[in-house]
Amino acid sequence: MEQKLAKEQRWNDLAEEYQTMLYRIAFSNMKNRADAEDAVQEAFLRYMKDEKPIQNKEHEKAWLIRTTINICIDVLKSSWYRKTVAWDESLPLAVQNVYLPYQIKDDKTLEAVLKLPVHYRNPIYLFYYEDYSIHEIAGVLNEKEATIKTRLRRGREEVKRILTEGRP
Amino acid sequence: MSIQEVSGKKNIAGYQGTKKSVRADGFQESLMQNLKYQDHGRKDVSGEETLTRKVEEQTGVKVIGTRSGIRVASVTLTEAAQTVEVRHMSYEESDHIEIAVVDGYTLKGKRVDEGTQVYVEAKYEDGRLEAYQVDMAKVSEQTEHKIERFALETVGSAL
């Protein structure tokens, strides 16, 4: 009984600690609230089912972020999602649902970031909006640091282009 | 038309070393332009200041190159802004944040000693982290220096 309670408490702590951050990351990929929440819940469920031995806090966090992103990518790639969801029209409004822990002056840039292809979007979002280092992003996304640097640079150029030309 | 044997180029009309002399002039001209460019604070041929120099002077951000792929920047130190050890401050801990995706950097600021000092942490696209301690008593309200400007905004964000 005590073990069960301790486990529940741990899941609660885990959810409290990471859910907002994971929601933001999921939202940056899914661009709508319901799908982002589903992705985060799925990530937590997978973590609980797996019963992973925690190496350390950073490992736990990286695992959750990576899983959330992978779930988002899988959903976005599914034919069901592509046939049934149209998010583009409401993006400026939807951006308001990204509850960042700080105020940002320029929502237009965030909108442009959310329009990026997934291989640019995630490194850019994690680097600028979640304040991750290149080393951490490389770990989370299972890529080399040099690859992340290249994607940051190309993604930035793409953001600039979207802001200038107004379309992805 | 027959093939003519040429023993000395100088004997052919219209080929009296003109090409060589043009090249020499071109080189000299180019050298003079380069010297002029260096001596006059990176001014271009028309005499107008280059964007690079202008950005450097106005913001204190030393832009080494702006072509894609070689964009490297570092901040010129002033009397008010001095480098300090990086503390790895999070966004949540910061009093003021600037996210400049298009320019490839983020800035985080925190008031220290009741706003008489501001700690500023800069993260660049190439992964570099730099930290500055800004003495607000030495910062002019009209400053165009990027870090000093940001420090002023950090103090202002508390009001």
Question: How would you characterize this protein structure?
Answer:
The complex is a heterodimer of chains A (168) and B (159). With 168 residues, chain A is mainly α. Chain A folds into two domains: 1-99, no CATH class; 101-168, Orthogonal Bundle (Arc Repressor Mutant, subunit A), CATH 1.10.10.10. Chain A has nine helices and no strands. Chain A has helices at residues 2-30, 33-50, 57-77, 79-84, 91-95, 107-114, 118-129, 134-141, 145-165. In chain A, helix 1 crosses helix 3. The longest helix of chain A is centred in the first third of the chain and has 29 residues, at 2-30. With 159 residues, chain B is α+β, with helices and mostly antiparallel strands. Chain B folds into two domains: 16-49; 60-156, no CATH class. In chain B, 26% of the residues lie in helices and 26% in strands. Chain B has three helices and seven strands; from the N terminus they run H-H-E-E-E-E-E-E-E-H. Chain B has helices spanning 18-39, 51-59, 146-156; strands at residues 61-65, 72-75, 81-84, 96-100, 105-112, 117-124, 129-135. Chain B has a five-stranded antiparallel beta sheet with strand order 3-7-6-5-4, covered by helices on one side. Chain B has a two-stranded antiparallel ribbon with strand order 1-2. In chain B, a hairpin with a 4-residue loop joins strand 5 (105-112) and strand 6. Chain B starts with 17 loop residues before the first helix and ends with a helix. The model of chain B is unreliable at 17-22, 37-49 and 64-72 (pLDDT under 50). Chains A and B meet through helix 6, helix 7 and helix 9 of A and strand 4 of B.
